[in-house]
Amino acid sequence: MAWGRDWSRRGFLRAGAGLGAVIAAPALLTACDDKKAPGVLKVGDQRGGLQALLSAYPDDKPGLDYQVEWAQFPNAAPVIEALNAQAIDVGAVGDAPFGFGLAGKAQIKAVSAYRSSGEGTAVLVKPDGPVQAVADLAGRTVATSKGSIGHFLVLRALAEVGVPVDKVTIAFLAPNDAKAALLAGSIDAWATWDPYTALGQLHDGLKVLVNAQGRMPGLSYLLSTPAALSARRSLVRDFVARIDRAREYSAAKPDAYAAVFAQQTGVPAEVAALMIRRTNFHPVALDDGIIADQQSIVDQFAKVGLGGDGLDVRPAFERVL
């Protein structure tokens, strides 16, 4: 299957109004010991997760002085579009969108990685609906975002029970549209991720059919681009270090992060608490094991005709930042 997105800068700008991106006010990251690298780093975030993460962390370590301009997106695909169009310098995405972007020849590089349990990535169904087991998806419709971690979970879950992908209709919808379709009975299942999963469980009475725990690598990345690394490597390096420290802090104090996340994003407090407790991202090295996990994702997409045949992901990892 051919890759259908326009990865040009012009294509990104033309579609910008539909991406749901919101540019937040710049944040100043300061430290008194180094005034030699002023500048601006443009960061693509998803639903305020990174921005809240940094706000929750009382970081007092020395670093560089620069501004962060935040761009908020509803999911990973437009983050990768923005990176490839050089509209942002750094973006947060999951492992499946990273692999899907590489298959589409996006100019992106992983600069840090984080692993979670995968519990918050799930296929949701109505408790009294026709789908009560993964095998029941045969002949039915599941919605997700193309190339997302939800999409990859569907592929893995179907393979696990021996249901061919072509026996299931996969409808590519944005998260909010997919939820509305499931609640209306227009589709039979919805593959998504937190906070959408937690919202569906706690506020819409939806049931987890299957989650990604033990089925997917559970990786998330900060991505950058060759152009950004060439022009602003020191800022990218400093930002990654701050996020790493904040991840460790949030893992130790999930309630503190959840409170800030709820306050800044408007997500209900109980949803934020569930999401943060079970996600528990922690930094991991960009080692051979991580690269092998990422290669397996690209290979899975290629196997079902979604591009990336013969693609070697190793050059897409900036192992020395």
Automatic annotation (TrEMBL):
Coiled coil: none annotated. One of its GO terms (cellular component) is membrane. The keyword GTP-binding does not apply. Keywords: Membrane, Signal, Transmembrane, Transmembrane helix, Transport. The keyword Transport applies. SMART domains: PBPb. Its main location: periplasm. Residues 40-264 form the Solute-binding protein family 3/N-terminal domain. Pfam families: NMT1 (PF09084). The chain crosses the membrane at residues 12-29. GO terms for molecular function: ATPase-coupled transmembrane transporter activity. It is found in: Periplasm. Part of a binding-protein-dependent transport system for aliphatic sulfonates. Putative binding protein. Belongs to the bacterial solute-binding protein SsuA/TauA family. This is Putative aliphatic sulfonates-binding protein.
